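Here is one chain, start to finish.
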Amino acid sequence: MMRVALISLSALLLVACGEKDQSLAKAYNKSDGKPWQGAHDEFVVKGWTPGDKTAWELQLRSRAQTQNEYVKIN
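Its structure:
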């Protein structure tokens, strides 16, 4: 009985070691681009063109200022 339990336990441990990698980076072999290269559709903010890093940074700064509660109160 002990031998059967030991064999079952070792088989169970070997099965658990056979898990495959489930990360997305290896599955699609794709890396992200630069954030300012962005979308090419009608949902982008006016005055910003995809690939323009300085305009992207200015847009982020102005968006952050509209979310700043201290600026809203004063």
